[in-house]
Amino acid sequence: xxxxxxxxxxxxxxxxxxxxxxxxxxxxxxxxxxxxxxxxxxxxxxxxxxxxxxxxxxxxxxxxxxxxxxxxxxxxxxxxxxxxxxxxxxxxxxxxxxxxxxxxxxxxxxxxxxxxxxxxxxxxxxxxxxxxxxxxxxxxxxxxxxxxxxxxxxxxxxxxxxxxxxxxxxxxxxxxxxxxxxxxxxxxxxxxxxxxxxxxxxxxxxxxxxxxxxxxxxxxxxxxxxxxxxxxxxxxxxxxxxxxxxxxxxxxxxxxxxxxxxxxxxxxxxxxxxxxxxxxxxxxxxxxxxxxxxxxxxxxxxxxxxxxxxxxxxxxxxxxxxxxxxxxxxxxxxxxxxxxxxxxxxxxxxxxxxxxxxxxxxxxxxxxxxxxxxxxxxxxxxxxxxxxxxxxxxxxxxxxxxxxxxxxxxxxxxxxxxxxxxxxxxxxxxxxxxxxxxxxxxxxxxxxxxxxxxxxxxxxxxxxxxxxxxxxxxxxxxxxxxxxxxxxxx
Length: 490
Ligand code: AHR
Hints:
With 490 residues, the protein is of the alpha/beta class. The chain has ten helices and 26 strands. The structure holds alpha-L-arabinofuranose.
């Protein structure tokens, strides 16, 4: 099979906001406790952060991490995770029916983020709480005034404000599973008033309004429209969440899910723009795709109630999952004109690329690699390309090109980075590139992620699915069901 990508230097979709390579750490399962925080671990630093996990997070170069939830945030009192640890209350977490010790809270998380070279994206509780607590939280984190909550932060040992820039107004408030579920109208009013007050406390922040929990929610579209009709002037982003799966064990249909993600993004952007037109506004609302991943095997898993840091939602990812994650990262890059933040959910242990053993080893899952390479090399402008590729029809009756690709021009490094997945289950692809405006560009690196077995997984003992450096040849071949990164220097 043959495919072609026509590129021209002058035609760009837009500048990539590096925050599309963000991730997510929730108080759930072993994401925080025994994930990023484990004081007894051999690699732990003086604060209790695992050094081996920190190293991998730094290696990915994660620019932003959403915290502390997720569903967890809708029942959370942020104050419980501040101040002297011995005085912090142990609580029932009614989102996940676990015991929350509160050993880790925003005091520690912002410190972890600094050490991990990342930025905190903080969510406030609009499930059981409201505008006043959000106001207090932002004063605690960001204010320099001589006032109660800013002084409480100082008393707790943090003279300088944390300076958290991006804030989420609740989480999945349309979901019946959510603590404090709301109708669109109820949420819209609460989010608007909370947003207004938060920006009065700190006008420099950016706010994310909660969109639908996923694109299959019956109220998707009406929810976004209602929320934005109220909150348009006070918020900056609308959130999108979606998880994809291969329950039917249908590889071609599974590989088409990144096109579904593309349609979801474009629909959400259209809703934002419809409200913009109705309001005759000059402002554009962008998208924060702040939960996305493959997740289906452990969805709905039940564990014994009221445990501390149980093994929970520890999805084991296989090779085909890595291919789809690679494609979805390309979808985010190709929509960089509207998607400014995105969070791979999640980062450690819970539906995550990084796995740990309590008091033991750290290892990486298959999905770690496309995420690592997209984040490290996908910086710059995404180019508008013309792709010619054979297509197939997915079970859902969509025309899907076998070639999934994105092209990023990193002007600083004078590199043209081409990400490409051959979605074909059985045929290799010869790739022809027309590099208009990059006359001297030459291929200097070809990294491939491939396994004969679509179901191959990595384990603590054995890394089966790992990237390899390919020999540079005159012809670029994308093997059947493979993920590739080609770097052209110019
Ligand atoms: O990421 C796991 C959960 O999925 C989050 O807590 C919630 O927001 C979503 O439903």
